[in-house]
Amino acid sequence: MPRTNTLDLIARLGRAEASLYGQEFLAPLLGNGQARLRIYDLIYELKVTAAYPGWWLCRVHTARQATIIAEALPWQRGDYLALWPVLRLVLLEPLPDKAWLALPYNPSAAAQRFSFSGGPLVIHLVEHGQPFERVIGRVEGRTIWYDDHDHRADPCIAEALRAALAAGRAMPGVPGLGAGEQAAYLLRVNQLAAQKAYTAAQRTEQQLRHALEVGGARLLGYALTDHGLQVTWERDGQRSVTLVGTDLSVVSAGVCLSGEEASFDLTSIVGVVLDAPAFARWDETE
Predict the structure, then answer these.
(1) Under 8 Å CB-to-CB from 110, ≥6 apart: which residues?
(2) Which residues contact 227 (CB under 8 A, 6 or more apart)?
């Protein structure tokens, strides 16, 4: 590019940036308070002070800073959203700052039009959302903004899906579901099952850890076997393995107890194992 053209471009960009000062603009803001403006195909990022998630009218103070002056009116928000293509979604679960996880109602169309994979997407600034509700999103680049409820959807379907999930049904048993609704239900079922399993594992570990700490020992780990919980623990530098039932009663102590294992629990067995002579021990992991 000739030098004169380069200087002219720099001058024009400088005038455009200077003209920003004091100007008002509409912006959907997230928790980070960042707004983006495009001028001559250049992106300016401004930090909006005292911002929180929502649709706002802002005023530029410097090339890097703006402030909120008022909440955007519905028609202003509608004009902004109308600039971007529609994507129908099924809500899954809420996230912080008015965001939700969602799946495309038509996964194949979402992949073809927007190159979105089959995993959950984040839709921002959702109003009064509920799980399995169908909504309209607007796709701006890789960001999805909430627009409205999907008025093509039957709200009874979302209610039926929520009821089926609350009843613990593995399959929804709701007729007329779209591919996205079916996927959303199965994903939530799997998520809840994983959460329950994780909670149960946490509870088991806490119980084992507490029982051993009372006995003066430290939990190193445990494994679920066909015969109970195989617990590995340590006290005073001595490592031991004890097999216990779900009530923490001893099944096998790792030392010879002459059939009296049921008389002990995980707490009381610690001292017994430590006091046992070497010839009375065996390796429970063999």
Answers:
(1) 87, 104, 116
(2) 243, 251, 252
**Three-class SS state of 236:** coil
Q: What strands, in cross-sheet order, belong to the sheet with 34-39? A: 24-29, 54-62, 65-71, 42-49, 34-39
Q: What is the pLDDT of residues 136-168, one digit of tens each?
A: 999 998 899 999 999 999 999 999 999 999 999
CA-closest candidate to residue 213, choices 231, 242, 235: 235
The backbone torsions φ and ψ at residue 265, rounded to the nearest 5 degrees and listed phi first, read: -115, -175
* Position 63 confidence tier, pLDDT thresholds 50, 70, 90: confident
Q: Which of 61, 50, 53, 64 is closest to 27 using CA atoms?
A: 53
Tens-digit pLDDT profile for residues 32-53: 788 877 665 667 788 888 788 9
Query: How far is the first Cα of the chain from the last one, in angstroms, to the nearest whole number?
Result: 77
CB-CB neighbours of 267 under 10 Å:
16
